UniProtKB/TrEMBL annotation, chains A, B:
Residues 8-162 form the 6-phosphogluconate dehydrogenase NADP-binding domain. Residues 170-284 form the 3-hydroxyisobutyrate dehydrogenase-like NAD-binding domain. InterPro entries: 3-OH-isobutyrate_DH-rel_CS, 6-PGluconate_DH-like_C_sf, 6PGD_dom2, 6PGDH_NADP-bd, HIBADH-like_NADP-bd, HIBADH-related, HIBADH-related_NP60_sf, NAD(P)-bd_dom_sf. One of its GO terms (molecular function) is NAD binding. This is 6-phosphogluconate dehydrogenase.
Amino acid sequence: MTQTSTQTIGFIGLGQMGQGMAARLIESGHSLIVYNRSQDKCRALAEAGARVAQRPLETVSRGGIVVSMLADDAAVEAVFDDALLAQIGDGGIHLSMSTLGPATASRLAARHRAHGVAYVACPVFGRPDAARAGKLWLCLAGPTSARARLQPLLDAMGQGVHAFGEDPAAANVTKLAGNFLIASAIEAMGEAYSLAEKHGVDASAVHQLLTQTLFACPIYQNYGKAIVEQRFTPPGFTLRLGAKDMRLVQDAARAAEMPMPLASLLGDRFLRMLATGQGNIDWTGLAADQRQAAGLAGTSGHTA
Amino acid sequence: MTQTSTQTIGFIGLGQMGQGMAARLIESGHSLIVYNRSQDKCRALAEAGARVAQRPLETVSRGGIVVSMLADDAAVEAVFDDALLAQIGDGGIHLSMSTLGPATASRLAARHRAHGVAYVACPVFGRPDAARAGKLWLCLAGPTSARARLQPLLDAMGQGVHAFGEDPAAANVTKLAGNFLIASAIEAMGEAYSLAEKHGVDASAVHQLLTQTLFACPIYQNYGKAIVEQRFTPPGFTLRLGAKDMRLVQDAARAAEMPMPLASLLGDRFLRMLATGQGNIDWTGLAADQRQAAGLAGTSGHTA
């Protein structure tokens, strides 16, 4: 019916999110050639029918589509070098779904353009289970001309697309703004619930009241539950990745020459967690640092 | 049917919230004697059928019920002096709906007990329009024995009651935790949306995405809209009142000997707004201070 449903799609980067998204694409009838630096992450997808590439260059043929979901800015810039961009070539599309800084997105977009490749930024909101179920929220920006060919992929991976125009950086700024709001909500609940606990008030009762009324939305309900129960493993999104995103938020604020005092506070909170070796728990575990500071640490918890 | 529907209820404190709550009680069939320091606030209620008292002592007869919705801790402690408590007397109930500090609540509860009066804390969540419509969220704690007589009043004023046990202070801690979460959300949106704006991204599009997905709840939707549109008047809840609540949060944290870094940040933000004469706009106007700091002030706005 469409080009994308008959042609093979390249998929680079098979972390927790990438694996779920790639599996979902296969399930929706797309042919995939997948690549990941550590090959063992390819196994499940190979069993589901994906071909496995030995190098990024093998994931895409001239004018094709390649999707990436890599860990950070450096990984995307390293993988999408001139050789790969030349391979994708004129008329090709790179659907870049990682959370990147806006400056990186602009730099990548220019380099892609020089090779005739459309760079489409599409960072996502949602945890690995949402990725696997095709229930991500997609935050899209890039050349409109590329949109139609991408639609079947977007439909398979997301429950909704929000478009932010032609400039890819806009989608990345929006994604960073969203992750900043989430980290801020974790911080606020961490402080509020430890205040309740220190005053002898049942934090889970406070959580119930607030998330059934003013804050009846997924972030407060789900993340707040993890905070109250102190269940920070297994991680849906690691504290280390959250720290990276907060660095991107702070970099974006500095680039725009504006202060973000709450981002600064959160940046320090993340660094304390990394400094004390807690980078691999879920980022809701920021609340553990607050409990520790409040003298509540060690009374319960599942952060080990 | 119940005692409260046949006996007259005292109501002290007719600010924006108190007027709405009292009007709603009258509409629900309750007889009220109202008192407010400035008498002009009593006029609309008198027209609706309330009797107007010249002194707090006239609002309640022995063993009766008096409701209060006053501006701050000092006002409640001043009005509910030994003379008034003696007047209420054994078997009487004070339904105290103001946002107070937990230490004040405990002190008041003890003084009430000495006069045989049940002190029931019931701070509320909701803006004046919700008060007028009987759609408040009620946060209740105090002697269980008083609960049955209060139920018809609670039913008239609220769309739901969350109970926090026998100790009134617990309800006040919970209310402060909630207001702290709201102020934190305002701060987070203020920073996030100014980041978007400085990067040339339409803040209202970012707001749409986030409040239709992860943050699909009233606080983010309604307060975020005010922030994006910079509509901070007329105030639903003034910045000055928010500053008072943040002081109560910080006092409660100090009393419990625990840091709340985000509360400290917010406390300073509130003080900057008061210092620059902006105490009478809505507390979503905290975001105006962030825009100013980001060099975005004066480009639009309705804070005058």
